[in-house]
Amino acid sequence: MTRWLLLSAALATACQSPTEDASVAPAAVTEAPEDAGPTDVEPEGLGRIHVGGAVIRVEYDGNEPPLPAEVMDAWVRRSARMVADYLGEFPVPSLEVTLVGRGWGGVGFGTHQDGRWITIYCGRHTTERGLENDWVMVHEMLHAAFPDLERRHRWMQEGLSTYLEPVVRARASNTTDEEVWRRWTRSMHHGRPADGDEGLDITHTWGRTYWGGALFWLMADVELRTQTNNRRSLRHVIQGLLREGGNGRVTWSTRRVIEVGDAATGTTVLRDLYARMAEAPGDVDLDQLYTELGVQRSDGQIFFDDQAPLAHVRRAITRE
Ligand SMILES: [Zn+2]
Questions:
Q1: 190 alpha carbon to ligand 1 midpoint, in Å?
Q2: 299 CB-near residues (< 8 Å, 6+ apart)
Q3: 33 or 313, which is more confident
Q4: Listed residue (85, 179, 87) closest to 133, CA to CA
Q5: 46 C-alpha vs ligand 1 centroid, how far in Å?
Q6: CA of residue 271 to ligand 1 center, whole Å
Q7: 240-280 residue pLDDT tens
Q8: Which residues have C-beta under 5 Å from ligand 1, the single-atom ion?
Q9: pTM of the full predicted structure?
Q10: Closest CA relative to residue 24, chosen from 11, 15, 12
Q11: Which residue in 37, 74, 96, 161 has the fewest CB atoms around it within 10 Å?
Q12: What pLDDT was estimated at residue 257?
């Protein structure tokens, strides 16, 4: 791990999207109403989806939905299935997904609240194909698989959804390994500390929040897999948190996340990384990391080197 971390040594904030040019998502603020409950099991039907032990309700707001409700339901179900397949179950017992018809584009930004509600904006030009390739729903659902933290640690929540969304989709064959690494080699560098940046707990720019957080979780996944020869990974961390009730419905301290997460893997990977990247501006030599993992980028194309020392780790990230 140390070989990728070089120490170097600021302040700001954001709530947006890991896509560089995406619109700004407003921070949702709503009082939590009475427990929506794991349901007195409503039967499945249009707008009521059962996946991975959860009941998900689909509601509509704004303009007429851009596609038939069956198609919108299939999108929600497919996304939930991918998340549940990764985690072993859906992270919360119930969820309400509100699809807001607004604007002319496709799937827009989304928000998540409290492991209970997701809102996603869908423009009139949302297509079935756009829904098939969508990442926003998976990103928002993954927020339900991690506890809420104090605002200064939001990089940890956004970073987790940013990192895991393509992983979850690749494992479900909803995207390719090449596409996952194409995105990461294009954007992960935004997470590195700029001149004057401090640790992730202190410098809250867009890049550090989304991609700095994603880089933290990538490093955690790689280090866990390297240390344990792929027997432990980030998935075990998140499953460990969920076993202790650490889903999107509760607020935890980062200390608890780290203790429970490390206990789940029998390592100190999270503690060590947190000290280097959150409390200090630990940088990562991404070129060296990609070389060791066997990832080469040329003219926007990705090539894999299976002879690289950590090729087995890279392959396992989107498989095991
Ligand atoms: Zn997010």
A1: 16
A2: none
A3: 313
A4: 179
A5: 27
A6: 23
A7: 999 999 999 999 999 999 999 999 999 999 999 999 999 99
A8: 158, 161
A9: 0.88
A10: 15
A11: 37
A12: 98
